[in-house]
Design goal:
The structure is a single chain. By secondary structure, the protein is of the alpha/beta class. It is built from ten helices and eight strands. It has a six-stranded parallel beta sheet, with helices on both faces. Helix 1 packs across helix 4 and helix 7 crosses helix 8.
Length: 227
C-alpha cells in the first residue's frame, strides 16, 4: 500500500468504505433489525434508517428511542449489531463501478486512500479479499471505541500520509454520511457525498457539499472541484 510521493498539486481522494465503496446497506438493515429484535424494538425500514441515521451512532439510537441509551444499553446494542452485521456483510459486494473507478484514478497517476469507522482488524482483510488494497496509499480503520465520529481519525490518516505529499487542501473525501463532510471540513479538505449508503438525499444535502447518486458522478465531481 505504498507509492511514490504524490505531487502537492495532484488531487487525492480519501474513500469511505461502508456504504460507499462497499455496498452494504442491505446488510446494515438486516443487522439493525436483528439487533432491534433482540432488544425488543420494532423493525425499521431503509427509508426510516436513512432519514434518522447520524454519527456518532448513539445519537441515532436517541432519535429512535427518544433518549440516549445508557452505557449498558449501548454495549448491548453495539455488540448485537456487529454480531449480525459481519455475518450479513459476507454477501456484500463493491458498489457499482467501484473497482474500475479505483483502477482509473490510479492509472491517471493520482493517489487515493481508504478511511473507515469499521474496526481496523476487520477492515484490512476485507479490503484485501476484494482485491483492491493495491490501489490505496493507506487503509485505516477505526481503533478505539465505536461511538465516535470520523474527524479525529481523519486527522491521523492525513498526518500519516504527509510524507507522500498528500495535502488536505488537495484532498476530496467521498463518503455516504454527513459525518464525512464534517470530518473533511475539520482538516481543511472537501467532500462529495453519495446517496447509496446510510443517509437520505435530504439529509446529505444539509451538509452543504455536492451530493451525487453514483460513484462515477462522485469521482467526476472530485475532478471538477480540483480544477
Amino acid at each position: 500500500m505504498t507509492s511514490a510521493p504524490a505531487s502537492i498539486h495532484a488531487t487525492h481522494i480519501v474513500w469511505d468504505w461502508n456504504g460507499t465503496l462497499l455496498h452494504d446497506i442491505d446488510a446494515v438493515i438486516v443487522a439493525t433489525n436483528a439487533s432491534f429484535a433482540e432488544l425488543g424494538f420494532p423493525p425499521i425500514t431503509l427509508e426510516t434508517y436513512r432519514d434518522l441515521y447520524v454519527v456518532p451512532v448513539p445519537k441515532f439510537y436517541e432519535r429512535l428511542m427518544g433518549r440516549l441509551p445508557t452505557e449498558a444499553e449501548w454495549a448491548v446494542m453495539d455488540e448485537a449489531f456487529h454480531r449480525h452485521y459481519w455475518v450479513a456483510a459476507e454477501d456484500a459486494g463493491l458498489a457499482e463501478g467501484a473497482r474500475e473507478l479505483l483502477q482509473d484514478w490510479q492509472r491517471d497517476g493520482l493517489t487515493q486512500s481508504l478511511l473507515s469507522l469499521a474496526p481496523h482488524d476487520k477492515l484490512v482483510p476485507l479490503v484485501r479479499s476484494h482485491g483492491i488494497d493495491r490501489h490505496f496509499l493507506r487503509v485505516d480503520g477505526r481503533t478505539g471505541p465505536s461511538h465516535t465520529s470520523k474527524a479525529g481519525h481523519l486527522v491521523r490518516h492525513m498526518a500519516a500520509m504527509e510524507a507522500t505529499g498528500v495535502s488536505a487542501t488537495r484532498t476530496i473525501l467521498i463518503g455516504d454520511a454527513v459525518d464525512d463532510a464534517l470530518a473533511a471540513a475539520h482538516v481543511g479538505a472537501r467532500a462529495v457525498l453519495y446517496t447509496g449508503g446510510s443517509h437520505s438525499r435530504t439529509s446529505l444535502e444539509s451538509a452543504g457539499v455536492p451530493v451525487v447518486d453514483t460513484l462515477a458522478d462522485a469521482v467526476r465531481t472530485a475532478r471538477e472541484l480540483s480544477e
